[in-house]
Design a protein that fits this description.
This protein is mainly alpha-helical. Helix 2 packs antiparallel against helix 3. The termini are far apart. It is built from six helices and four strands. The strands form two sheets. It has a two-stranded antiparallel ribbon. It has a two-stranded antiparallel ribbon with strand order 2-3. It is flat.
């Protein structure tokens, strides 16, 4: 590979280190704000508001540290842009411009839109819009499959998921999920 080709890429080692550092910071921030909300059991609601986000933040930190140690352990292999797998493919080259990354960027934008939608439309409406879009992007349908059948399956999965979330969180855990601004 020519040197000028390498300038478009970065190594997996660099990406893993950046993601690990950012994830540790994000996870610690989530834990910090969760503690401010309160962590542990509550006689009124079952769990205090910060319990589940705190557990998620701790999980993020845990997996970021695992990624960091794995990256350090495999630093030589992950840092080598000329590393090829058994098929002769370069496996440690990462660039932001790869077409394979486009679905990731689209999902990021959808998650941002979902987060904004939570504030104005509430969880159930935003979730009912988000889920079919993500299903379409992440699992494109087979061209031979009937579009009507795909639509019906998608709507059934969407409705079933929203009902399950309602039963688990609203009825079972007595947790209030974000509501639309007009309620």
């Amino acid at each position: 590979m020519k040197n000028e080709d390498k300038t478009r890429y970065t190594s997996m080692k660099t990406c893993n280190l950046v993601v690990s550092a950012a994830s540790v910071v994000l996870g610690l921030l989530i834990v910090y704000f969760s503690i401010k909300l309160g962590i542990g059991p509550s006689k009124v609601t079952g769990m205090k508001a910060g319990t589940w986000p705190g557990m998620m933040g701790a999980g993020i930190v845990t997996f970021a540290v695992i990624l960091l140690f794995d990256t350090i352990k495999n630093a030589k292999k992950l840092g080598d842009l000329d590393f090829q797998n058994t098929h002769g493919e370069y496996v440690n080259r990462v660039t932001i411009h790869l077409p394979q990354n486009q679905p990731v960027y689209v999902v990021m934008l959808i998650i941002i839109a979902f987060s904004i939608g939570l504030r104005y439309l509430g969880f159930y409406i935003s979730g009912a819009i988000l889920l079919p879009i993500l299903m379409r992007i992440l699992a494109p349908c087979d061209r031979n499959e009937n579009k009507r059948d795909v639509m019906i399956k998608t709507l059934l999965i969407d409705a079933g998921t929203m009902i399950a979330i309602f039963v688990i969180f609203e009825l079972g855990l007595k947790a209030k999920l974000p509501e639309p601004f007009w309620i």
